[in-house]
């Protein structure tokens, strides 16, 4: 059945495939199928020119489609990554980094380089020099879910 459709549509089968992939991108957004759809449309455009040529076999068409899809994907990735601008909230998903510069009081003393502090409504593990409970500390850095502190 598929071979019959491709035979009847000829070079337009690539255009149909490309439009189906572009429509699928609308249904399943992810900015990936668009590049493969563009590869199919490019293959369809070349097919319109070379369909009667003896060298334009299904294997060559599949190879052109694969290369065009990869090329469009790489170009699209480069295009979209160059559009990433500077965020107005660069530390949005970096909670420990967003706390740098804040001061707090130690809830548990720092012993052997480890202690605990409360900032807002969260208790944080801290590392730094040994200090007694109740000491004011300043956050100077963060590693994963642990804050690095020094005496304020």
From TrEMBL:
Looking at the keywords, is GTP-binding present? no
Q: Provide the Gene Ontology terms for cellular component.
A: plasma membrane
Record-annotated NfeD-like C-terminal domain positions? 97-151
Q: Where in the cell is it found?
A: Membrane
Q: Does the keyword Membrane apply?
A: yes
Entry's transmembrane regions = 12-36, 56-75
| Topology in membrane | Multi-pass membrane protein
Q: Which UniProt keywords apply?
A: Membrane, Transmembrane, Transmembrane helix
Put simply, this protein is called: NfeD family protein
């Amino acid at each position: 059945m598929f071979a019959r459709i491709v035979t009847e549509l000829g070079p337009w089968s690539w255009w149909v495939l490309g439009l189906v992939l572009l429509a699928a991108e609308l249904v399943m957004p992810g900015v990936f199928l668009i590049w493969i759809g563009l590869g199919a449309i490019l293959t369809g455009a070349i097919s319109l020119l070379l369909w009667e040529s003896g060298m334009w076999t299904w294997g060559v068409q599949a190879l052109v489609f694969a290369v065009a899809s990869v090329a469009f994907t790489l170009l699209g990735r480069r295009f979209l990554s160059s559009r990433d601008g500077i965020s107005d909230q660069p530390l949005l998903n970096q909670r420990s980094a967003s706390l740098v510069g804040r001061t707090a009081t130690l809830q548990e003393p720092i012993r052997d380089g480890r202690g605990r502090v409360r900032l807002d409504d969260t208790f944080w593990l801290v590392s730094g020099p040994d200090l007694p409970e109740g000491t004011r500390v300043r956050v100077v850095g963060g590693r994963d879910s642990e804050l690095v502190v020094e005496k304020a």
